[in-house]
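Dear colleague,

Thank you for sharing your sequence with our group. We've completed the structure prediction you requested, and as agreed, I am returning the results in plain text so they can be pasted directly into your records. Please verify that the sequence below matches your submission; if there's any discrepancy, let me know and we will rerun it promptly.
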Amino acid sequence: MNTPVLWQFALSHYAEKARWALDFKGVPYIRRSLLPGPHIGRIQKMTGQTATPVLELDGAIIHDSTRVIEAIEKKWPEPPLYPAVPKDLERALALEDFFDEELGPYLRRWGYFYLLPHSSIVASMFTSQAPLSKKILFRAMFPFVRPLMIKKMRIYPADAEEARKKTIAALDRLIAELQPSGYLVGDRFTVADLTAAALFWPVAMPKEFPYPLPSPSELPAPMAEARVKMLEHPAAKWVAGIYQCHRGKSSAIAEETVI
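Please find the predicted structure tokens below.
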């Protein structure tokens, strides 16, 4: 059996969702971290589209974090991320879909609105694991990558404000859906909890996140201030607890930054 390969953006919250599933199950795999912009040709050739993460598994090329987790769960069912009871599985998958659609894109847009004007910070974050030559190359390329990101993700003031409101609404839904157990479905950790926590990591910045993160003092001041306000939401404490209890160690056996 070939070792699975996860093509990702290291700091993408959707990549974190896929990574977490592999790590949770202890699956040995290889991480290949792409850099935004230069990734387009490679991923488009592999999948016919440009989004990550992408998992190479037993000769298949699987894109979209939900489909990646579905494939992982099918091949490695233990420990389970899908509940065994049909009504619980239906609920878990519905919540996974909700957070994928109603939290992930909006939190990303809101965060990049604050980050993208600061080329050195963003380039440093994207290339934290890369060798010096690739750091220098991507820093030089980033002024050309940034407008593409702005256009593709609609990172404009009015859209960013809408994204902030949508993010808060999704976090309100998270708290409303919590069961007496403290989990979103039943009495144990499922794909619903993993998805909600993984997609909120850019605000929570939990210490268990598998890559180096800037300290809050290194963030642009407007973003730092906005993040502090977002951290007042009770969902932020829940996310920190889920990371502490369930993130665990990486099972990746190799890593490479690709440009």
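Summary note from our side: The longest strand covers residues 252-258.

Kind regards,
the structure core
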